[in-house]
# Entry
Amino acid sequence: MQNNQQSTLSNLLFPMPLAVTEGSGLFRINTATTIAAEPLFEGVADLASELLGLKLGGEDILFKEEGGLEEEEYILTISSQQIVIKASTAQGGFRGFSTLRRLIIASDTIIPAGIITDKPTFEWRGFMLDCCRHFLSPTFVKKMIGVASLFGMNRFHWHLTDDQGWRIPIDGYPRLESVASKRVELSYTDGRTHGRLYTKEEIADVQAYAARRFVIVIPEIEVPGHASALLAAYPDFGCTKGPYEVQDRWGIFDEVMCAGNDGLMQFLEDAINQTAKLFDGPYLHIGGDEAPHTAWKSCPDCTRRMEAEGLSKIDELQGWMTSVVARMVTKAGKSPIGWDEVLDGTENMNLPKELIVQSWRGSAGGLEAAKRGHYTIMSPNTDGCYLDYHHIESEEEMGNLGVSTIEQVARFTPTPSHMADEAKRFVLGGQVNLWTERITKSRQAEYMLFPRLLIFAQQLWQSQSVADTLAKRPLLEKFCDHLDLVCYRGPSA
Ligand code: ACM
Ligand code: ZN
# Structure
């Protein structure tokens, strides 16, 4: 997009802010442009200086404290003389700076004057990366956190345990590294192994990178299913005691954690306590999806557990386990989150109210959660939130399982019109997920993520009409080029 005198802020902004007033004149950013900040914004100004390649010192771009604004709210004023970002908090300053940085990219450094007053609609603006099916490097994970934060996203859900690999170190359990982190490719018989753990240093580095950008990292430890890798390392934690394999196939496996095994429960408590210490954020995801109960039915330990706990149905055993593990998370100082299966069969079980429910099998889980007084995160696979799904129905396109078109993403809202008002207040926001069964390289991941992730980010920030969003596709491609992101450029539906 060639910049010219007709460029307006509205044409260059993505996501669109809450309010924009066009001004007259232009501010030109060049190598002599300087940044200054009041003390509250020192960290943000340092980051701005680093990312824009500009010196701290003079007040061409000024961060100023302004009372009375909300946590993420900011006012960005651009005149031909100066750019001022006002906020009440460092986070508000970062959100304002991110809008400025997007404008610098979109305008080729010549920014139209005007005033932007802005804050997000939803509190939870998240994305998930599955780093188990295929390992994604810390460098790539940080790149995605950086890009997501530039577009106003503030939650990174890190899927760290699954059938095909365990990725988080837990002291006292060395076979997580020597066995559970390594997928032997049995089907390909070339003797290769895939994967490894993230080191504690890498996790701390990702965490610090995210914190600087006001992104909260949510680690996920899956309970009780998707556990083949753990069971391969510690077969005693399963009902049949194995042998188990770190899976080299995709799907849902009958081998799950044994709900009757006290050694397993001790492991989960250790894993949760240590994970809670490794991450600064207030949340810990406990999975819960796609866990068959087949093995539990013929397991004497599981039967004993049901008797001891007075449970009559096998579904209630998962409910029992969810409750116990959720309480471990609470005791470790975090809020537990589970996929929507955590609600199945638990109507009369009094699940801990602090359990947040992530709705993925459509929106029904979220509606049910809200009805039962649980906060919920909407990531329905039926409405564009699964970014491993194809961009369009086409033999030529990569992708897995289903379709999430750009138009679907552009229509997405976490609070659809059929949702009752009293349910809406339990909706924290939304999240897109990228599963990596068929994604072996970060460049493929980018093709699946972009531009859909950017459009999703807008819908959670300030929802726009589909037509207005689609009209901005050239701008989104420009952002991707500038940020060195592979981007899908095909049909929107
Ligand atoms: C999921 O997609 N199995 C949460
Ligand atoms: Zn069992």
